Amino acid sequence: MPHLSPQQSRLQDDIRGLIQGEVRCDEIARQLFATDAGILERRPCAVVWPRHTNDVVACVGYAAERGIPIHPRGAGTETSGASLGEGIVLDFSRFMRRILRVDAESVRVQPGLIRFRLNTILNRLQQRCFGPDPGFMSAATIGGILSRNGAGAHWLQYGFPDEHLLDLTVVLANGDVLTLRRDALPKAIAGSGGESQGIALARQIVLGKEFPLADGVHQILSETPIQPGASIFSVTGAVPHRCGYRLQDVLQGSEKTSVDLARLITGSEGTLAVIVEANLKTVSAPNRAAAVAFGFNSLEQATRSVPLVLPFKPVLCELVDRRRLNMLRDWDKRFHALIPLDAEAVLLVELDAGTVGQPLEPSEIRDRLDQLIETVAVREKLCFDCLRIERTEEFPLFDDFLHNAELALYRMRRSFQAIPLLNDLAVPVETLGGFVGDLLNLLHEHEITASISGHVGQGHLCVQPILDFSSPGLVSTLQRLTEEFCALVWEHRGTISSEHSTGLLLSRLVPKQCANHFPAFRKIKELFDPDNVLNPGKVIPDDGNWTGFLRQGLSQRSRNETDESVDQPGEVGFEETGLPDQLKLQLKWNPRQIAEPTYRCNGCGACKQLGRSVRMCPFFRRRPEGVMSPRAKANLLRGVLEGNLELETLTLANSKEIADYCFHCLLCRTECPAEVDVSQLAARCKAAYAAAHGLSTADQFFSRLDSLLRWFSLISYPINWMLTNRLSRWLIDKTVGIPQGRKLPTLSKISFLGRTQWSKRFAPPKPTAEPKVALFIDTFGNHFDTKLTELAVRILEHNGMTVHIPLRQRASGLMSYAVGHADRAERLARHNTMLLGDLIRQEYDVVALEPASAACITKDYRSLIDDPDGELVSLNVVDFCDYLLRLHEKRRLRLDFQPIRKTVGFHAPCRSIANGSGRVDGTTPAQELLGLIPELDVRRIEEGCCGMAGSFGLDKKNYRLSLQIGLGLFRKLRTKEIDLGATDCSSCRMQMEHAVAKPTLHPIRLLAFAYGLTPEL
Ligand SMILES: Cc1cc2nc3c(=O)[nH]c(=O)nc-3n(C[C@H](O)[C@H](O)[C@H](O)COP(=O)(O)OP(=O)(O)OC[C@H]3O[C@@H](n4cnc5c(N)ncnc54)[C@H](O)[C@@H]3O)c2cc1C
Ligand code: SF4
Ligand code: SF4
């Protein structure tokens, strides 16, 4: 267990005694919750994962007694430091994330539930959804959304979250639990000033616990003139700004004595109460029928078009600027279709098409779309290009584009980074064009560039200045810019906060923006939370200056991208640590290699999303808890690099646990906008732990499996018998840790390499005009499915290749890498790199039988060894199916296939996605090859990872989780239409055949059969 100071220990023990949930006060937990998706950092004293409302009550009571602040937290994707602080973080995303009840038109949920998950379930059950979508769509939690009450991208369609709230259950700072119903608002007593205490008590008993609050709020608001002129959005007549507490419409009824406390608490950023349950209205899922992407020559033209768009009933109107467009083009080729060349800005507009229950007439929608295009493109000639989106199958691309546009700036490399400083301002729609012009002038004066995008349909703009984090004057530039930007926003009657929290970053500006209402805000805070326990420093600012909380590593991130000099140990914060030599040796700290991916993580939280357009991270998707995410691993390493955590921390079980929630699928490396190689970071943590404690028996076994199998194959008969015998399987379970229930493949009598020794392929081929292929086969193809390897060779030969099997090849080392056996992985990497490098120089095409081995050689080796041949090998080794597809593209693949009349459910292995386009809905080479076989019906099953991941699913401790991760895939594979499964990874194949009583074949087998190279499938 991590070391705790006496105070930490006491705090942890105290809270543990009070709650059924979990609590941690150690440095690791504090480090993981010290940041959100923004640029600030504050370390909490404890992290609590409440299981139910009573835990929250106990925790708040305990904290209030001792004056310790409480910081409620959902997914931690806010960018303003809204959930950060030095008190106790209450993380709802782990246990309190259930749907409690689904009714015909409402749903009761816990606050840690991710909105995306809620809507996936509602859509499946009832074709309904929770409408408002403020926040990072596929990661934000309901608690995070309600506590901000921001307008989302679909504000034009759904308005604010509080309009969709039926009741809210909250825990107050004094520990009271209130359920605040919207249909029975608590009443205050108008003019009750001189009432005796007895009468007040009697009223409280009759009127409920909320009476004193309702009465207090009523008094405060009665004395405060609420500015009706807050309606800054004259085109729509509504007010999408949320800075400070929301005072409008809190007093209800003809006499204004009913007090809508739920409305007041919604949007209060966790400073008035902690939300523990919400009953939300649901709406029929939207019908989607018409959208358009306009291309503009300038940002001003794009923003000037917005008032013209609004009369056509858009449900969404989004601006994407050139910077993001450039990033999007690079990110995904499919987006080229939506981005006109030379566009300075794109405006995406989707029109109201009714709901799935009550769709609008197609002709009416089409007419509106025609008129909209006529107005913007033809009559006003504001845009130079437009693309209509009207077919159902076009909307996923439209959605992906919008989604990735949010993340695009996180792809920026090098020292300049986009800073989420004023990423949430809004001005009246009709002044947008003028405002953008003034803003550009201001930026020009300061010689600063910025990305300017946003939900412009409601006047929202996300302005992110692009600054050099390593510049010495960064802080003063940030301060100056904030002041001047805000002044400009206010000059244009705008708001600095329209949907995000003001958090630690902007709360000090709340008194300026809301000068008239601020005294009332303060009184309300004192009424609800007199001791300032709930999320202090937010909305009502405290004395702390946010510049003091800037993330330490910001400048480091920049330096790592540019500065070669950090190669020297010590430059990134390593001091002599007094650790045993063995540990230092094993860690092999090349600071640059570790610091580079660590600091590349900007905390954006994209690896915490549950959407369908990504697969990462299989662990987090199965258990959406903070510690499971790739971000947690990067945060752990960042803590070590910055000296918040001692190097020794990596030798603790808690660190190992975090690292073990990674089976090196490489998806985050390809799907994370910043392309952070979290797999490498996890491998290093595992190696550090192994250096200090050694490997477990199971890990020893898996790491050395390739060597052991050489001996085992000498006694393959008894071994195979043991694998089917219950008693011996029980023994294996108890000793090696391979679960008894796991189906295991049969060991080959003689390994493929052993057999090859006697065949002609042993000898290096004579010089020949034919293309030469050197086949890298790895452990499975060598010791288990040798028939598959044989067929692979025959396919290559059938296509005119001369195949050479390099006998000196060794296992790829992926199994060793994955369990933290770094030395061995490195040895294998060096050996194979030297061997394959030589073959490449002799003009061999080096082909790896499996995508996992190919990815290990081309990607993992780069982080393991610094070899002169590293780059050569990394650029030239290809996976088998990829190689065949390349032949096909060069028209060199024979297509003399006989038909196969079957329907296959194809599963794309994670490492195959990582090897290729990195997109879950992009086809993989194996899938495309199968598509060449006549009459074979190939249906891609995109339900994420299968959960096996090499040795991960073979280890008893992971068995259940491994099967749970693959559940979606298994369900689809079991459906009647699918005759058999197909996948190009042998470990996925094992898992699929284990879970589903249908054969799963490698594409090599199907191809070989179609070529007539094997009589049976
Ligand atoms: C790439 C990206 C894009 C984004 N786009 C948008 C956008 O378009 N619009 C937008 O509005 N935001 C956006 N955000 C910000 C962020 O996603 C939203 O603020 C989101 O709703 C926060 O949800 P969360 O679960 O992460 O909350 P957290 O960040 O964990 O917390 C946010 C606030 O909610 C409070 N809170 C959380 N749970 C509770 C609870 N149970 N009771 C009381 N208070 C609670 C916290 O104390 C904090 O003040 C974006 C962020 C990123 C990284
Ligand atoms: S790992 Fe990538 S996706 Fe996850 S928080 Fe870091 S940068 Fe974002
Ligand atoms: S490599 Fe895969 S398992 Fe590991 S953190 Fe990334 S997505 Fe998760």
Can you describe what's shown?
It is a single chain. The protein is of the alpha/beta class. Helix content is 41%, strand content 13%. Helix 11 (322-331) packs across helix 13 (395-407), helix 14 packs antiparallel against helix 15 and helix 36 (851-864) packs antiparallel against helix 37. The chain is globular. The protein binds flavin-adenine dinucleotide (FAD) and iron/sulfur cluster (SF4) (2 copies).
Task: Provide tags for this entry.
alpha/beta, binds iron/sulfur cluster, 1017 residues, binds flavin-adenine dinucleotide, 5-stranded antiparallel β-sheet, 41% helix, 4-stranded mixed β-sheet, 29 strands
Which small-molecule ligands are present, each listed once? flavin-adenine dinucleotide, iron/sulfur cluster
Q: How helix-rich are the residues, as a percent range?
A: 40-55%
Average per-residue pLDDT, rounded, comes to 90
User: What overall geometry do the principal axes of the alpha carbons give?
Assistant: globular
Distance between the termini: 52 Å
- Strand coverage percent: 5-15%
Number of continuous helical runs: 44
Number of strands: 29
Low-pLDDT runs of 5+ residues are: 229-239, 561-583
**Biggest sheet features:** 5 strands, antiparallel
From the alpha-carbon coordinates, what is the Rg to the nearest angstrom? Answer: 30 Å
As laid out across the biggest beta sheet, the strand order is 5-6-12-8-9
- Please identify the structural class as seen in this structure: alpha/beta
